[in-house]
Amino acid sequence: MYDPIQADNEELVMRPMTCPHHLLIFNSKRRSYKDLPIRMSEQARLFRYEKSGALTGLERVRSMELTEGHIFARPDQILSEFKNAYFLIQEVLNKFEIEIDYVSLSLRDPLDKSKYFNDNKM
User: Fold this and answer.
1) pLDDT in tens, 14-33
2) Nearest Cα to 63, choosing from 36, 86, 88, 44?
3) pLDDT by residue (tens digit) across 64-119?
4) Is 41 in contact with 81 (CB distance < 8 Å)?
5) Are 23 and 40 in contact (CB under 8 A)?
6) CA 67, 105, 75: angle at the middle one, nearest 5?
7) Is this prediction's pTM over 0.90?
8) Burial category of 71 from C-beta neighbours within 10 Å (exposed 0-12, middle 13-18, buried 19 and up)
9) Residue among 94, 95, 71 nearest 82 (CA)
10) Judging by beta carbons within 10 Å of its beta carbon (0-12, 13-18, 19+), is residue 110 exposed, middle or buried?
């Protein structure tokens, strides 16, 4: 998909996240609103290359396993799908006795068009 680049005597190739692949799967056939929600998830290896000094600690790793998911839902299903995803994450954290200090949700700011796709219908 992308041409290789050279960095520190290594040949690297950029790879998109799983988003394009999940969209291709979703669009591979005609679907009805009755088919929704459709949930997709996969484990993917994420490789990173950060310049020395740019990051520290675990942010500095060269590769990691990424669990990525996408939910295709109708507008009336979004709240329940969000709740289901949140409760699933909580269940896993509790199972492994992982405590987190806070949870943040990033939402699109319709007044700040510089950081978001400029289409209020999306």
Assistant:
1) 766 667 888 889 999 999 99
2) 44
3) 777 788 999 999 999 999 999 999 989 999 999 999 888 877 777 777 777 776 77
4) no
5) no
6) 85
7) no
8) middle
9) 71
10) exposed
